[in-house]
Write a structure and sequence with these properties.
mainly alpha
Length: 81
């Protein structure tokens, strides 16, 4: 069974396999235990989602420079096909 943790960790994250940062874990647990809050609306869930989105965005920006050589090589290989 695919879980949020396995998806997150299988994408080359620098986090240890099978773990995710606290904010993502908190959001995941809250959605697992109280999925009705998506339809109902909940200020805490809303804040958790915003904080999680910011955390993931910031992580992506941090890792962008390290990823650039790999992305460039991929794009160049596609041009030369």
């Amino acid at each position: 069974m695919t879980t949020a943790t396995s998806i997150f960790c299988d994408r080359g994250s620098s986090f240890a396999r099978g773990t995710m940062p606290a904010i993502e874990e908190t959001l995941s647990q809250r959605l697992s235990t109280e999925p009705h809050l998506l339809a109902k609306g909940d200020s805490l869930l809303n804040q958790l989602a915003r904080d999680t989105t910011k955390s993931l965005y910031d992580k992506g920006v941090q890792e962008e420079k390290a990823s650039l050589p790999y992305i460039s090589a991929l794009l160049l290989s596609l041009i030369h096909i």
